[in-house]
């Protein structure tokens, strides 16, 4: 576990829809402030199902898409167009519907296998500074990106920026994940957490248990948007 304490701001919503609507607002605001300050917006996308509706809504916002740079927090080692890839979900829900320059969508080449893909993506990230925004999810066991309990999370700055993940408990077993320290190099980190299935993980998180999600420690702290089902606060 990292010795950098995590600052965590919790936001609980009565409905998943309210959470998703606010997530879109936060992402759009982060984009506009980055673009006006630096002319570019560098965002890391989360995988799984929870962000899909948010991505679908983002396809409809007004912004300068030519300034967006898209990275992936983790990927599943599956063939390029496999619908189960996190990149396929993001493309289908959002990216193929907007004019982000193709060269600014940085896919993880997970089809190369975990080890080679991790090396390739680490090389790509060498030229990249702090991300403007990192989106993350939470698994039922407390995992985030593809950082799983009992495995290496890459907390120390000496760790690789990108990890090859084997024997992941969530299929598929072969994955690639940005490490905890690299995900923490961000101006803003936003967790999207929905559904009663996440209740135990949220309880452990709030109790201070050493779960992977707590290893994400950007200077600015993290924001967790959770619906009442996940937060155990049925409203
Ligand atoms: C993946 C994700 C993973 C995901 C959580 C939550 O590849 O599966 O990156 O970390 O965010 O497992 O998944 P759901 O949103 O589908 O519950």
Task: Give an overview in words.
- The termini are far apart.
- Helix 1 crosses helix 2.
- With 235 residues, the protein is of the alpha/beta class.
- The mean pLDDT is 97.
- It has seven helices and nine strands.
- It is globular, with a radius of gyration of 16 Å.
- 29% of the residues lie in helices and 18% in strands.
- The strands form two sheets. The protein has a six-stranded parallel sheet. A three-stranded antiparallel sheet has the order 4-7-6.
- The longest helix has 23 residues, at 16-38.
- 6-phosphogluconic acid binds next to strand 4.
Low-confidence stretches are none
Q: Helicity, in percent?
A: 25-40%
Number of helices: 7
Average of pLDDT = 97
What Rg, in angstroms, do the CA atoms define?
16 Å
The structural class is alpha/beta
Instruction: Give the DSSP E fraction (strand runs of 2 or more residues).
Output: 15-25%
Distance between the termini: 34 Å
Q: If strands are numbered along the chain, what order do they take across the biggest sheet? A: 1-9-8-5-2-3
Largest sheet: 6 strands, parallel
**What is the string of helix and strand elements?**
EHEHEEHHEEEHEHEH
Approximate shape: globular
| β-strand number | 9
Hetero compounds: 6-phosphogluconic acid
